[in-house]
Write a structure and sequence with these properties.
heterodimer; A: 431 residues; alpha/beta; 5-stranded parallel beta sheet; 14 helices; 18 strands; 17% strand; B: 170 residues; 7-stranded mixed beta sheet; 6 helices; 7 strands; 26% helix
């Protein structure tokens, strides 16, 4: 019997051969991450581990990155003090640290070359599934887990069953990976893949650039997936090499691997999708919602704050102005994306159109920085990943979730708009 | 740890422990505060009347969409002996085991608040004698039993820094 990518990566890291779904393994972890929203908890756990042990050390601590992204910049004294503690910890132990404005954990880890194909990576964030875009088993854990990894280099895992999702055909211009993940949420429901791993495959994946593939793996978190894995190809290995990662060890699924479910999506005929207020799995086609007014447009987060998202938004807003009464904020996912967007002149285009650009970080995703709070009855359209009531600080406002293309087109017209109907909405990088 | 016997306290389906049993959305509050107010929006007085040794019997996907392990610390403070539910949210299930809280995947049909429920973790059995309910459940894997017996991952590693999960894959 063959094996899935998840079974192979977890098994190789545990006992040198593929594991079976359902098995519990203790596996060597290649890299781990703690961000500032969970660092306080993790540092407490490390204190507990070392309690009463003179000369206590963390032998694997150098393969853990600390990322100051959620409270970026810190909105209060507690967050600022957590940042101080994280900087002191990194200095003391020689761990990599990404400071305020450097970017979101799921962007700076791959950009920093911290892992390669075939690796096993954990982070204190549910969107750690993002690393699967690079053929890495990435999964979200808590502070206790990362403390254990720093001490022992290992962690226990229940090996997940896998759902295989084949994307047939290639996306039309103006339709993005976000429209695929929203389609999946409409199909399986939020948390519909609880405990399971996803494997995305097919022509539709092969045609995607790395930015879009990261969206595909990232937004699997809302499906409840433990990991979301893609096979590696030349695009993957070239990207990793350019970012200084170790030599790739690509892992493919066997032809006779056992899957919990097979799903085929005809992406060639997919239309842009949108999740309506409060529920990430209340998904409809964008054309059905045409005319729905919006007042706030947000582009950013670990789901869609990458360079292609900003390029697409700039292509739509070049030489134009935001619709009357619309505010727009763009938050790049990392400092290097910020710099690239500046070099390409994208921020000049967006700023001239009426948008504001803010420092890289998690700010536009959740109200922990007080970064953007909408007024009562206001409608926010966002390229983020979650939209539950009150996530942006006001339960009387609404959050609708879509691709960066849909967000930019909607900011231009003031209503939910299919990017394919506006100039520049068909922009796509030539891969 | 091997046999747990307690009074059932019933909760519904799809409960987020981030929302109902952690201070994620209550800045400035601590675990002790939460132990007095957990789940009160779902069942008023739930935490106030909770007795040490009671067992939470919840509907499907308990702890769904919840990442905070603080929820388990709160439950320990309340005196929760175990949680029985048809299914759990992935991250919650992991956090429970890592923090020494027995979580049992089991059909809960017919179990009512106040019923005495007996859980045998080793044999894999959930019994409510007064209602003639006996469910066989898959026994917890030895690795998970080892973590629970130690009281969670941190105490386990203090004892076994080499991950000796007794007969499990090393």
């Amino acid at each position: 019997m063959g094996h899935t990518i998840a079974e192979k990566i977890l098994g190789q890291h545990a006992h040198g051969k593929p594991a079976n779904a359902g098995e519990i393994v203790v596996a060597s972890v290649d890299f781990s991450m703690i961000h500032d929203a969970r660092a306080g908890n993790a540092l407490k756990m490390i204190e507990k581990l070392g309690a009463g042990k003179p000369g206590f050390t963390l032998p694997h601590v150098k393969r853990t990155a600390l990322v100051l992204d959620h409270y970026s910049p810190p909105p209060n004294r507690e967050a600022a003090n957590t940042h101080v503690a994280m900087r002191e910890f990194a200095e003391k132990h020689g761990t990599p640290l990404y400071d305020v404005g450097d970017g979101i954990c799921h962007q700076v880890l791959p950009e920093g070359g911290h892992f390669t194909c075939g690796d096993l990576v954990v982070g204190t964030d549910t969107h750690s599934t993002t690393y699967g875009a690079f053929n890495v088993f990435g999964t979200g854990v808590e502070g206790t887990d990362v403390s254990a990894v720093m001490l022992t280099g290992k962690l226990w895992f229940r090996v997940p069953e896998t759902i295989r999702i084949e994307l047939k055909g290639t996306l039309q211009p103006g339709v993005w990976a976000k429209d695929v993940t929203l389609t999946m949420l409409g199909k399986l429901g939020a948390e519909g893949a609880n405990y399971r791993a996803l494997e995305y495959c097919g022509d539709g994946v092969a045609a995607m650039g790395i930015d879009d593939r990261m969206t595909l793996a990232n937004h699997a978190a809302e499906l409840g997936a433990k990991a979301a894995l893609l096979e590696a190809d030349e695009k993957t290995t070239a990207w990793l090499k350019a970012h200084g990662a170790a030599a790739p060890k690509p892992v493919k699924a066997d032809a006779d691997a056992q899957y919990a479910q097979h799903i085929v999506i005809d992406v060639a005929n997919l239309t842009p999708q949108i999740a309506r207020k409060h529920l990430i799995d209340d998904v409809v086609g964008v054309p059905e919602m045409a005319g729905q007014k919006i007042q706030v447009a947000l582009i950013g987060t670990c789901t869609n704050g990458r360079l292609d998202d900003i390029r697409q938004a700039a292509a739509i807003l070049k030489g134009k102005k935001l619709a009357k009464g619309v505010r727009m904020i763009v938050t790049p996912a990392s400092r290097s994306i910020y710099l690239a967007a500046m070099r390409e002149g994208l921020f000049e285009i967006l700023t001239a159109a009426g948008a504001s650009v803010e420092a890289a970080g998690c700010g536009t995703c959740v109200n922990i920085t007080g970064h953007y709070i909408a007024g009562d009855k206001q409608v926010v359209i966002s390229s983020a990943n979650r939209n539950f009531k009150g996530r942006l600080g006001n339960p009387s406002s609404e959050i609708w979730i879509a691709s960066a293309a849909t967000v930019a087109a909607s900011a231009l017209t003031g209503c939910v708009t299919d990017a394919r109907t506006v100039a520049g909405g068909d922009w796509r990088a030539v891969a | 740890m091997k046999i747990i016997k307690g009074s059932a306290r019933v909760l519904g389906d799809e409960i987020s422990t981030d929302i109902h049993c952690s201070t994620k959305y209550l800045p400035g509050k601590d675990t002790a505060y939460m132990a007095q107010h957990a789940f009160e929006q779902l069942a008023p007085d739930f935490a106030q009347s909770f007795k040490k040794g009671d067992v939470i019997v919840a509907g499907k996907n308990f702890g769904i969409n919840s990442s905070r392990e603080q929820a388990v610390h709160v439950m320990h403070q309340m005196g929760v002996a175990a949680i029985v539910a048809p299914s759990f949210g992935r991250q919650f299930f992991r956090n429970a085991i890592n923090n020494g809280m027995p979580v049992i995947e089991c059909d809960i049909a017919g179990i009512a608040g106040g019923d005495v429920i007996e859980i045998d973790l080793i044999a894999g059995r959930v019994v409510v004698a007064a209602r003639h309910i006996t469910h066989a459940v898959p026994p917890l894997p030895a690795a998970v039993q080892a973590l629970l017996e130690a009281g969670g991952l941190i105490p386990f590693l203090q004892k076994y820094p080499d991950w000796n999960l007794r007969g499990q894959a090393s």
